[in-house]
Amino acid sequence: MKIHILDDWFDTLATLPSFAKLAGHDVTVFKEHEPDAAKLAARHQDADCLVLFRERTLIGADLLDHLPNLKLLSQRSVYPHVDVQACTRNKVLLCSNMHSDTPSYAAAEMTLALILASFRQIPQQAASVRAGTWQMGVGRTLRGRKLGLYGYGRIAGAVAEYARAIGMDVWFWASGAGRARAIADGVNVAPSREAFFSQSDIVSLHIRLKPATRGLITADDLAMMMPRALLVNTSRSGLIAPGILETEIAKGRLHAAVDVFDSEPMLDKNNILATHPNVLATPHIGYVTEDELEMQFSDIYDQINAYASGAPIHMINPEVWQASV
């Protein structure tokens, strides 16, 4: 099969052991991100399979309608960036292992790292040493602070475990079903949404982005947070209503640690989330570790080989395969 791998910005995948699973295929790796659908269509005209690097490239009808040779999209986890109906209409099978039994420990670790770095001013203190000025301020201790985790899934559970280990007071807020599961599990759930936002020293978002959760965090939610509270987002930018975090940060009242942005890659040096001293911004690296990529792409390559052998796995639109056999 002619396999095109998209958005491997640092040419990492070929250095990992799992890449050997593609032996025997005709593989091309593309480092450069290309957002234009017409240019993507021209670049991938002869591809049988596109390998997606999470949600870095939008796979819409404007692309799929112009790739007549494409048979397979192979990726891992959720797929809000893929037009599944357009895939089905164009007879393109989407395979994606939803890994229901394993959290992203890398993302959970990143969340804790951002909290620690923000409260202890680690980037600023390191920059001060490099500038030859020694200490630049006084940070805050995390032990005893209340950490509010919005979402009751696998990553939130891992973050809770890490936070409790350093003495933080953890509680949750989630959908009605999520809160019911949390209560059944005997964990601490906030008595109300208002209490959750107004009484948490730190609020960290751990929710999947889908139509029902887009814009879930509102201006009223942020306004309820206490002065100097920290909002952490390692999930998806679209969970927060457009512009409201930027507006709140501009007031100088809240702090934020963000790993995700409305448009990625975010290259605007003047974006307030990149420039404001109350914000620690990182370039969507929550899941980007060698270990995590090895695990994810091993699954992705297994899906390709299963398809090539005539027994596809993790099918999202199986009707495409059923119609072909």
What can you see in these coordinates?
This protein has 325 residues and is α/β, with parallel strands linked by helices. It folds into 2 domains: 2-100 and 290-324, Rossmann fold (3-Layer(aba) Sandwich), CATH 3.40.50.720; 105-281, Rossmann fold. The chain has 13 helices and 11 strands. The protein has helices at residues 37-43, 61-64, 84-89, 105-119, 122-130, 154-165, 176-184, 193-199, 219-224, 244-250, 272-275, 290-308, 319-324, and strands at residues 2-5, 26-29, 49-51, 72-76, 93-97, 146-150, 169-173, 202-205, 230-233, 255-258, 279-281. The chain has a 6-stranded parallel sheet with strand order 7-6-8-9-10-11, with helices on both faces. A 5-stranded parallel sheet has the order 2-1-3-4-5. The radius of gyration is 21 Å and the shape is globular. It starts with a strand and ends with a helix.
Short description, anyone?
By secondary structure, the chain is of the alpha/beta class. The protein has helices at residues 37-43, 61-64, 84-89, 105-119, 122-130, 154-165, 176-184, 193-199, 219-224, 244-250, 272-275, 290-308, 319-324; strands at 2-5, 26-29, 49-51, 72-76, 93-97, 146-150, 169-173, 202-205, 230-233, 255-258, 279-281. The protein has a six-stranded parallel sheet, with helices on both faces. A five-stranded parallel sheet has the order 2-1-3-4-5.
